[in-house]
Amino acid sequence: MRGGTTLHPMVRRNTDMVSDARVRAATGEGREHWFELLDGAGAVRDGWKRAAMAAFLVARDVDPWWAQGITVAYQQERGLRRPGQVADGTFEASISKTLAGPVPAGTPAEKQRLQVQARNLKTPKPWRQRRSTG
């Protein structure tokens, strides 16, 4: 990170998580192209907020999901946001672990499993006639 700040090994920059090749495949251009457009429009100089940067990209036919990711990468590269930092200046982190075994009764996970199971029972399966060849 700029300024000599060391990041926790689990905190990654946007550019480390999404390759430039994926950005190019989704938008037709690499990050540097979008960064140059944002620089040229004065995004840093004029103090644009995240929403204005993303809207600028969407106006250039970038899908909103990709516009948000490019905006985060741009803010990190220009020193406006640190990895893990959200738009309001606070930081977020999450962790998860998958465990093998039965879902404990009464948990939100069990409720979700039962809802999916019930939905699958209500959804008719495609009908297929079988012929007996005796």
Order of helices and strands: HHHHHH
Uncertain segments: none
Q: Label the structural class.
A: mainly alpha
User: Which overall shape is indicated by the principal axes computed on the Cα atoms?
Assistant: elongated
Largest sheet: none
Q: Taking all residues together, what is the mean pLDDT?
A: 82
Strand content: under 5%
User: How many DSSP H or I helices?
Assistant: 6
Question: What Rg is obtained from the alpha carbons, in whole angstroms?
Answer: 23 Å
State the total count of DSSP E strands. 0
What portion of residues is helical? 40-55%
Instruction: Report the end-to-end length measured between terminal Cα atoms.
Output: 74 Å
Task: Describe this protein's structure.
- The chain has 134 residues and is an all-alpha fold.
- It has helices at 14-17, 20-27, 31-41, 50-58, 64-77, 108-122.
- Helix 4 (50-58) crosses helix 5 (64-77).
- The longest helix is centred in the C-terminal third of the chain and has 15 residues, at 108-122.
- The protein is elongated, with a radius of gyration of 23 Å.
- The mean pLDDT is 82.
Essential attributes:
134 residues; mainly alpha
Tell me the layout of helices and strands:
Elements: H1 14-17, H2 20-27, H3 31-41, H4 50-58, H5 64-77, H6 108-122
Give a short summary of the structure.
The chain has helices at 14-17, 20-27, 31-41, 50-58, 64-77, 108-122. The protein has 134 residues and is mainly alpha-helical.
